[in-house]
Amino acid sequence: MIEVKNISKTFSTKQVLFDISCKFEPGKINLIIGTSGSGKTVLMKTLIGLFAPDSGTIIYDGRDFIQLDRDGRKDLRQDIGMVFQGGALFDSLTVEENVMFPLSMLTDMSLAEKRDRVNFCLKRVNLENAHKLFPAEISGGMKKRVSIARAIATNPKYLFCDEPNSGLDPYTSLVIDELIHEITLEFNITTVINTHDMNSVAESGEHIVFLHKGAKWWEGTFTEIMNSDNKELHGFIFASKVMQSFKKLYLKENA
Amino acid sequence: MNHIFEIGRYWIFMKNLMHTPEKWRMYWTQILREMESMGFGSLPIVAINSVFMGAVITIQSAYNIVNPMVPLSAIGIVTRDSIIIEFAPTVMMMVLAGKIGSAIASEIGTMRVTEQIDALEIMGINSSTYLVLPKLIASLFILPFVVIISMFLGIFGGWIAGDATGACPSADYLKGLQDQFLAFNVYFAMIKTLVFSYIIITVSSYHGYFTEGGSLEVGKSSTKAVVYSNILILLFDYILTQLFLA
After folding, report:
1. pLDDT digit string, tens, across residues B20-73
2. How confident is the model at residue B134 (pLDDT cuts 50, 70, 90)?
3. Rounded Cα gap, residues B202 and B11, in angstroms
4. How big is chain A by its Cα radius of gyration, in Å?
């Protein structure tokens, strides 16, 4: 479990996060949603230690990330997997080498063991024939899947995904969502996803944190969104005509 | 004020990269890759520059030596010493700052803007050590050899040009090469090469590492890396010359 307590963050004179507190539980898809500029990415980067918060604490299963020394953070980070928006695959390495990289750097596994693990992870994300391809030779959806494979290679306890659906077609988005969902349940990972994809919210919104102007505006499940009277939340979720129709249908059925 | 900030951040960056690598075997692979890229990859441009610069130094020396009291072998001495003391370690390193420095700044800058450096950090890997230390070690090993090759090719270019144009016959040139040779000049050139290698790698890596924005900023970082490396090479050339030769 990840517990976030009273996190605030300021860049120069601009405050981006205001006293955010929430809990992310294992075996669940935890979504951070909000409009562009609402502080989602800053919150996620603060959670994984790329930004230092001005105040507050981040506790990973009893370990206070802020108070940890360099070695403690290094150990904790080996329990963290991250799927970046653009994949962040290493351009000079093949798909196989990308997935093998954290194993080579952080474990004492033999080459055979590493190959087995890489094959397992690539098979898990349905990429069995792309071992020797370079990132420039694969599609956006494949990059995301390689990124997921690399993130789960070291058996992380915590998985962070920064807009995993951005730039993908609706079908591939769905495949990626399902994959993350399955992996979360299968390995009982605490998964935190940063998204503004409404399909993801509807499909896998087990625990949703809505950010508005850098503050936590609302927290709950997708079903609770329907019964919420939060104006900003509804303005964000039901901005498109498709979602408005969905809302009407839902309210009609549950009237 | 901004320059003070940059200098401070540079030294913090230097301190951060001097850490024990997570896995030496992975670093060793990187060092070999970098040595190949910096060494073999630089040979064509080094060869072309060296041969032509040697040729030009010889012909210009011959053109300027009009006094019949000065023997033609002096052209060999001038060419040899110019190449060993200044051309190979300084001018060639400035050329390499353009080639290697811009490549490093672009590579690391692109890794920064595409979040590859963040990915390394999140894995628990010290990104500055992993990205810069192999380049630094590789450059300190391989660039002295590149400079020595440049010396030989520059002197060879001068020999060919002097003989071909009749400005300095072979016998005089070869006699000049052997006259008043000081081994210290080669040591001095090697010291300069090591200092300039350090400047090129660390300054270029620094500019790449702290790139913010997108592809436009990567280009700017690359330009800054070359400009600052060249300015620092000239500054340290002066300081080292003052220290060792004055």
Report:
1. 888 888 899 999 999 999 999 999 999 999 999 999 999 999 998 878 888 889
2. very high
3. 10
4. 19
Domain boundaries defined on chain B: 24-241
Nearest to B131 by CA among B235, B26, B223: B26
Domain A2-79+157-253 of CATH type 3.40.50.300: yes
Q: How far is CA A115 from the centre of its chain?
A: 26
Written as one string, the DSSP assignment of A25-44 is -TTEEEEEE--TTSSHHHHH
* B214 phi and psi angles, rounded to 5 deg: -130, -150
**Which residue type, as a one-letter code, is found at position A50?**
L
Best CA proximity match to A216, nearest among A72, A107, A56, A82: A56
Q: Is A166 left (phi over 0), alpha (psi -120 to 50) or beta?
A: beta
Nearest to A50 by CA among B22, B120, B83, B114: B120
Closest Cα in chain A, distance from residue B125 (Å): 7
Any CB–CB contact under 8 A between B22 and chain A? yes
What is the total residue count of chain A? 255
**CA distance between the termini of chain B:** 34
Taking an 8 Å cut-off on Cβ atoms, the answer to whether A106 and B125 are in contact is yes
- Taking the CA of residue A223 and the nearest CA in chain B, the distance in Å comes to 33
The secondary structure of residue A129, as a DSSP letter, is: S
Which of A86, A89, A106 is closest, CB to CB, to B22?
Answer: A106
Distance (Å, whole) CA B32 – CA B197: 17
Q: Which residue is listed with tokens 């997570």? A: B22
Say if residue B194 is exposed, middle or buried (CB neighbours under 10 Å; 0-12, 13-18, 19+): middle
Judge: A77–B123 Cβ closer than 8 Å, yes or no.
yes
Q: Which of A206, A201, A230 is nearest to A218 (CA)?
A: A230
Mean local confidence (pLDDT), A5-28: 91
